[in-house]
Amino acid sequence: MRVLSGIQPSGKLHIGNYFGAMRQHLQLQAENEGFYFIADYHALTTNPVPSVLREHTFNVAMDYLALGLDPQKTVFWRQSDVPEVTELAWLLSCVTPMGLLQRCTSFKDKVAQGLSPVHGLFAYPILQAADILIFDSNLVPVGADQKQHIEVARDIAVKFNTIYGETFVLPDEHILKSVAVVPGIDGRKMSKSYNNTIEIFEPENSVKKKVMQVVTDSTPVEAPKNPDTCNAFALLKLVAPDAELADWKQKYLAGGVGYGTVKKRVVELLHEYFRPYRQKRQDLEKNRDYVERVLCDGARRARAVAGQTMRRVRDAVGLGGIRNA
Ligand code: ADP
Ligand code: TRP
Fold first, then answer.
1. What is the spatial distance between Cα 153 and Cα 150, in angstroms, rounded to a whole number?
2. 145 lines ligand 1 (CB under 6 A)
3. Cβ contacts of 251-260, under 8 Å, gap ≥ 24
4. How far does residue 16's CA lie from ligand 1's centre (Å)?
5. Atom of ligand 2 nearest to the CA of 145
6. With 90 as the cut, is the pLDDT of residue 177 above it?
7. Is 110 a catalytic residue?
8. H or E element: which one contains 224?
9. CB 156 within 8 A of CB 128
């Protein structure tokens, strides 16, 4: 099964990205043909500073590699190193009804957050469809927030196949088993755009500081507490073994435990979880040439597949001269 997913280099990756998406991407690579990329074309829709975009892209690469992406097995590349997707995006644009894009909620959400309503942001789902379709992807593992975009990719593929004949594989979404939304330190969804993240590889003392700042209510220590609405408990759920979690749940319901104690345990468990990967992350930081080579090799492998699809697609729509092939 070919499994494809992308992640935007729109900031430093955080534990919400890890537990919500990356961990499962990494698990899926074992039994599938993994195609994972860093969506830097998509990140341009929010007009980042060029040097910052380049740095974030590289950081995402180092994070994935440190956390266990196997570049021998999985094809891993920078989206913009395979420019064929932008050509496909244009061809798909020409069959995509405006209404399909107008119904997408992410454009409206992002504009409501203050982003400039540029055309790239509006057409974002078409480029995403091109990412998926150009690699004949069977399965696209994403968070629930991306479900609509995968449906759009299918709709576009069906439309294209109806007009031009069977050209694209119809992808299925694989909604990642939700660890629920990971809350940020302010209690909203942890997100690179809210400045409320705990980065996977920030120094341990800074992780500690941030966890201790996580917003909790003012229930006194002795009083019973609700684990289901508590941000500290939500973090504990990510890293505590089941038996320990059940124990904490009892303590919440019975009262007598303070949020500070819970947070201290979250810190310990987060440190334990990520410590084995920190050394690898530091080594990669010192070996940027290796990281660049991995990305270039991934791009070469990805381009071979994309090039084949594009020959098929260009033929289907009537582009190019007569080929003798
Ligand atoms: P961000 O909001 O930080 O910019 P993205 O939108 O780039 O994150 O998300 C990348 C992936 O990480 C998506 O699959 C998304 O579902 C997942 N993800 C992001 N934030 C969280 C979160 N707080 N909890 C769970 N999953 C998340
Ligand atoms: N839009 C996705 C996100 O923000 C990133 C992405 C771009 C993607 N192209 C993709 C995800 C193709 C899956 C498949 O998370």
1. 5
2. yes
3. 252/224, 252/225, 252/226, 252/227, 253/224, 253/225, 253/227, 254/224, 255/221, 255/222, 255/223, 255/224, 255/225, 256/221, 256/222, 257/221, 257/225, 258/221, 259/216, 259/225, 259/230, 259/232, 260/212
4. 6
5. 15
6. no
7. yes
8. none
9. no
| CB-ligand 2 contact for 5 (6 Å cutoff) | yes
Q: State the ligand closest to the CA atom of 185.
A: 1
Of 144, 101, 147, 108, whose CA–CA distance to 123 is shortest? 101
Is 263 considered catalytic here?
no
- Pocket of ligand 2 contains residue 142 by CB under 6 Å: yes
Catalytic residue among 192, 210, 237, 263: 192
Judge whether residue 208 has pLDDT over 60: yes
**Annotated catalytic residue 12:** no
Q: What are the domain boundaries of the chain?
A: 2-180+288-317, 201-283
Tokens 């405006």 identify what position?
Answer: 98
Active-site residue among 12, 159, 189, 251? 189
Structurally, what CATH architecture does the domain formed by 2-180+288-317 represent?
Answer: 3-Layer(aba) Sandwich (3.40)
CATH among 1.10.240.10, 1.50.10.10, 3.20.20.140, 3.40.50.1980 for 201-283: 1.10.240.10
Question: How many Å apart are CA 166 and CA 89, to the nearest integer?
Answer: 18
- Structure-block tokens of residue 206: 């800074």
pLDDT tens digits, 84-98: 999 999 999 999 999
Q: What is the mean pLDDT of residues 60-88?
A: 98
Average per-residue pLDDT for the chain: 95
Angstrom distances, CA of residue 118 to CA of 97, 107, 113, 189, 201: 18, 10, 14, 25, 33
Among protein residues, the one whose CA lies closest to atom 2 of ligand 1: 191
Q: How much distance in Å is there from the Cα of 307 to the middle of ligand 1?
A: 30
**Ligand 1 pocket, residue 310 CB under 6 Å:** no
Tokens, residue 169: 């594989």
pLDDT tens-digit readout, 15-65: 999 998 999 999 999 999 999 999 999 999 999 999 999 999 999 999 999
Pocket lining: 182 vs ligand 1, CB cutoff 6 Å = yes
